[in-house]
Design a protein that fits this description.
Elements (H helix, E strand, L loop, with lengths): L3 H11 L3 E7 L5 E6 L3 H21 L7 E6 L2 E8 L2 E7 L6 H13 L6
Antiparallel strand pairs: 1-2, 1-5, 3-4, 4-5
């Protein structure tokens, strides 16, 4: 069975618009990464999830947000989370298949294939 690192590397190969991808622990530590995001990007993922959780808490009584997608002129960030870990990808500007990338992140995360 391929290692988590190998699965993430395959995802980068399949999605050339992705410039970084990582498994990030709840405390912000990067646990598995074929191409590391910058420390600022890792911190931004934590901030995105925090803000998304606050918005979700105002809108419903469901648990924390499980996925976030932010698309900006400078690129996109896609994050899936369950429990304390998240799987995050950063893309180039105007990614062509961000929805499919988010789906693949969710699939890897749900099957535990990208988790160390």
């Amino acid at each position: 069975m391929p290692s988590p690192q190998h699965k993430l590397s395959d995802l980068l190969t399949d999605f050339p618009d992705a410039v970084a991808i990582a498994v990030i622990a709840e405390n912000g530590d990067v646990e598995a990464v074929p191409r590391p995001p910058t420390p600022a990007a890792v911190a931004a993922v934590g901030g995105l999830l925090h803000v998304a959780d606050r918005v979700a808490a105002e809108m419903s009584e469901e648990g924390p947000v499980q996925q976030v997608l932010v698309d900006t002129p400078d690129g996109a960030v896609a994050v899936v989370r369950e429990g304390g870990r998240c799987l995050a990808a950063v893309t180039r500007p105007r990614p062509r298949s961000i929805g499919l990338l988010l789906y693949e992140l969710r699939t890897l995360h749900d099957h535990g294939e990208a988790m160390p």
